[in-house]
Amino acid sequence: MHYENSLRRVLANRAIFGIASAFKSIDWVDAYCVFVNRLPATYGRDAKHVGGVLSGIDFIVKDSIDALGFPTTNGTEALSINYPSKDHSLVARLKSLGAVCVGKANLDEMSYGWASDNPYFGKVTNPMYPNHSPGGSSGGCAAGVAGGGIWVAIGEDTVGSLRIPAAFCGVSACRAPLSTLDAEGICPLTSSGYDEAGLIANTLDDISLLDSLIHEYEELAPIEACKLQVAVATNFSLTMLSQEIEECMHNAIFKLASAGANIVMQEVPASFDRAAQALTTMVNHEFAQAFNAYLNSRSHVPATLEKILENSDSATMRKIKALAFPPGRPCRPAYERAQTNARGIEQDVVDYFAQTRCHVLIHPTVGINVSVMEISSINALELARHVSVASCARAIAMNFSVMSPEGLPVGIEMLCDPAMDSRQAFAICRTIEAIVKG
Fold first, then answer.
1. Beta-bridge mates of residue 413
2. Hey, which residues does 186 pair with through a beta bridge?
3. CB atoms within 10 A of CB 44
4. Which CATH superfamily is domain 7-437 in?
């Protein structure tokens, strides 16, 4: 499977074209406001950067994730000297393969938002459609890849903050909770394990290749189209969508059926529509405790989140005060109901796939496209309706992007059968990506 801007093709042809063929021209001018911190523009690829299968490949890291040489600011001035003592394990693994971290990517302050409009580092621009939001909170990661200057970005996903920006910016992302890489070195939103590092790249085919290198396994060949079992839920995949996204979904399903895939029409349980509420309730209840535990593990940072809030009056900090602290913080009974709902959704996902015997449930990443002007007032539950199911279920979810007839990027997500591992999921999702984008 070879696509335009294919990392797989570049690496395969390196022996013919030489190592320079892997290089992209980094946008040092930062036209899309991608960077929080970066290597100097005079950075050159000398001998110490040569060696390893990913030599010559540059990547960026969301600034809520540790990368040596850069402070982990989490998008806030209070953490400007929060220098880590080691790389996050995913960062370290890419470096060990020869890739170079060229900078830290812009994000919503404290990863607590959907717009990637940062009061200190600027507003990220969507390279694919500048009048529309890049999404958040990993908006700098998605914009960096979509703008063409970076092959891959490491982001983080709790309530879709990896997958939503990828969808809005026209690129691909994978949330794979079964990863063996630990969560240490990520600024948390939760204390119950919903924060996951993941990759953004141009295609799932590229992410599959990278995942196989990171975890040292041999990729499975893409599955034949006639062996695909794809679930479609009229009450989830095809409802409450804007017109252009509904058209893209119908077109994707038509292409899959025409290629020989077996399309199974089966509605999802009503619990799926409670996923976004459950997840945001858990985030708002757990955030202060989780972040204070993080601060306690670091040096040269404010002692508590409360101390940070005392010295900041940004819109995000006001929102944190309102939602993550009394009286606005979800009460204990509401939190426990959210936990119960999340566990129920996790079981419902298992039961759904056992009943349908499908590989994936296909649905839009987000049911609406959002302009820059609209993003600040959008209903977060509407934005997170689809992506929250995979998060609650702790299941693998992958998304790729297509262009609507109006020229807007539209994310198509595949919620994978929890019984599958990443290796199997990539073999299936790469086939779906190739058919729908073909």
1. 363, 399
2. 65
3. 7
4. Amidase signature (AS) domain (3.90.1300.10)
Q: What is the pLDDT of residues 129-140, one digit of tens each?
A: 999 999 999 999
What predicted TM-score, i.e. pTM, was given to this entire model? Answer: 0.95
If you write DSSP's letter for every residue of 159-216 in order, what string do you get? SSTTHHHHHHHT-EEEE-TT-SS-STTB--S-SSS--EEEEEES-HHHHHHHHHHHHT
Q: Determine the 3-state secondary structure of 103 from DSSP.
A: strand
For residue 383, give the 3-state DSSP assignment: helix
Question: Can you give the pLDDT at residue 171?
Answer: 97
**Residues forming beta bridges with residue 60, ordered by sequence position:** 103, 153
Round to whole Å and give the CA distance between 211 and 418: 18
Strand 409-416 relative to strand 360-364: parallel, antiparallel, unpaired? antiparallel
- Tokens of residue 266, six digits: 């089966």
Tokens standing for residue 296: 């306690």
398-438: per-residue pLDDT in tens? 999 999 988 899 999 999 999 999 999 999 999 999 999 99
The enclosing H or E element of 327 equals: none
- The pair of structure tokens assigned to 65 is 């994730």
Query: Are the C-beta atoms of 118 and 316 separated by less than 8 Å?
Result: no
**CA separation for the pair 159, 283 (Å, rounded):** 9
Block residue for tokens 């890049």: 134
Cα–Cα distance measured from residue 49 to residue 12, given in angstroms and rounded to the nearest whole number: 19
Q: Which residue has the tokens 């809005």?
A: 168
Residue type, 389: V
Query: In sequence order, what are the residues at sequence separation of 6 or more whose Cβ sits closer than 8 angstroms to the Cβ of residue 281?
Result: 330, 334, 335, 337, 338
Backbone torsions φ then ψ of 172, nearest 5 degrees: -125, 155
Identify the pLDDT of residue 318. 97
Answer yes or no: is pLDDT of 44 > 70: no
Strand partners, 415: 361, 397
CA distances from 205 to 21, 34, 159, 220, 438 (A): 19, 24, 24, 12, 13
Rounded Cα distance between 343 and 155, Å, is 25
How far, in Å, are 75, 283, 390 from residue 316 at the CA level? 11, 15, 26
Helix (H) or strand (E) holding 14: helix 14-17
| Residue 145 CB coordination number (10 Å) | 33
Neighbours of 17 (CB within 10 A): 10
Estimate the crossing angle of helix 422-437 against helix 243-258, to 10 degrees: 100
Alpha-carbon torsion (262, 402, 145, 140), positive or negative: negative
Q: Where are the domains of the chain?
A: 7-437
CA distance 339 to 285: 11
